[in-house]
């Protein structure tokens, strides 16, 4: 028995054993005992995770995949969650324990998986996974690049990001039309912001929504004082600012007196 890849679920099953092992081995295994694999399919990555000294859990919405895993990975049967990762509460399954996230992510929900990870960063010390290459590059990119944007800044505010390797379409069934890229996020020791988090998100998103404009123009809607808008940082465009400069900018806005 094998599982048919379903287009509406964005499934592309990895068939290369070496790449599966490399993804599993990208985990440092530091600071956690649990790992949750998103979208295990037929378990090509799962089997390498099961060789580690980790408690492996998988989450899958495809009932056909779940049946396959139950039949072929008997020691995993009671740790298969038939749910949508984007809709679960991690604490319902892991209490307050730390859990690493890993997977060959469906491209259509991969950025949502990252945002959910950021929301739950107090519980997710590490994250390793496969994305469409351009999305992986965007998450890992530094300031000064055309692809540096909202996803880059918000992720790098809380995690150290490493782009690990590129994966060709030929190792999947069915092959996607684009290359893939594997990245790893390791949570920063101090993963709280020294500024209001909601305001930080607003500043970053508002700035990049008009990325060709200077901050003086793109952040007009935030009702800033004339004195603050004379600060030299407002003459820059958003992709010129490092994560630290965005935090500093948010602090200036937070303390602005109109």
Structure characterization notes:
- With 258 residues, this protein is of the alpha/beta class.
- The chain has helices spanning 17-25, 46-49, 63-72, 90-94, 110-119, 133-140, 150-158, 197-209, 215-218, 226-229, 243-254; strands at residues 13-14, 34-38, 55-59, 80-81, 99-104, 126-132, 159-167, 172-173, 180-187.
- α2 links the parallel β2 (34-38) and β3 (55-59).
- α5 (110-119) packs parallel to α7 (150-158), α7 (150-158) packs across α11 and α8 crosses α11 (243-254).
- The protein is elongated and about 65 Å long.
Summarize it.
The chain has 258 residues and is α/β, with parallel strands linked by helices. The chain is built from eleven helices and nine strands.
